[in-house]
Amino acid sequence: MNEKREFDLLVDVARLLRRYGPEAFDALANYLKRPEAADRIVAVLSASARTVRGLSLSPRSAGQGERSRSGVERLLLSLEKTEPEKAQMLATFYQKLQSKSILPSLRDLRSFVADNGLAPISAKSRDKAILPFIKDLASRPLDIVKPVVEGARETVQDRTLEGWAGVILDEKRRSKEQK
Q1: CA-CA distance, 112 to 147, in Å (whole number)?
Q2: pLDDT per position in the chain (179 positions), as tens?
Q3: In whole angstroms, what is the distance from residue 129 CA to residue 110 CA?
Q4: Contact predicate 136/76, CB 8 Å
Q5: Which of 33, 77, 137, 151 is most buried, by CB atoms within 10 Å?
Q6: Which pTM value belongs to this model?
């Protein structure tokens, strides 16, 4: 990336001041002072770039995944006109879904939907399930959508003994709650 493009990007970020206000920018500046902040920002930027590349440079040609992606994008663009906060939240959520950092399998997605009382998913693949899932969320009020979206934990591939113990214990907790 050249310096002009980087500068233009920073100018675009600065334009968000009107939307989010000076308090949000102060909070972000304080966050960026922390040592772990750079790693998290780099991860978000990289995931966003990969997601956008996946949207525009997908090897599939006009397959179902392509149609659902463009369907989600159209949905979010139209939602942005009436409910910009919800549209932004769902766009970020969609990017995380596409990068599989949250709900990486169809089984995870179905469990999440059931746990949150959302419309059941009948799709046979995860890619085909995402559009109806996002449509369902978009049709609900922001005060319902916000806790649902925030409740989706990012998946961390922890293959240590402690990580597997967490997976097993979480499964036991879920099975007890269902009884």
Answers
A1: 12
A2: 578 888 788 888 888 877 778 888 888 888 888 877 777 777 777 776 766 665 443 344 445 555 555 788 889 888 888 998 999 999 999 999 998 889 999 999 999 999 999 999 999 999 999 999 999 999 999 999 999 999 888 765 555 666 667 666 766 555 555 55
A3: 9
A4: no
A5: 137
A6: 0.52
Rounded to whole angstroms, the Cα distance separating 55 from 49 reads 10
User: Rounded to an integer, what is the distance from CA 12 to the centroid of its chain?
Assistant: 21
Q: Are 121 and 110 in contact (CB under 8 A)?
A: yes
Round to whole Å and give the CA distance between 127 and 97.
Answer: 10
**Measured between alpha carbons, how far is residue 82 from residues 13, 16, 79, 147, 155 in Å?**
22, 18, 5, 20, 31
The phi, psi pair for 20, rounded to 5°, reads -105, -15
Q: Do residues 90 and 102 make contact, with C-beta atoms less than 8 angstroms apart? A: no
d(CA 58, CA 13): 27
Distances (CA, A) of 116 to 18, 120, 166: 34, 10, 21
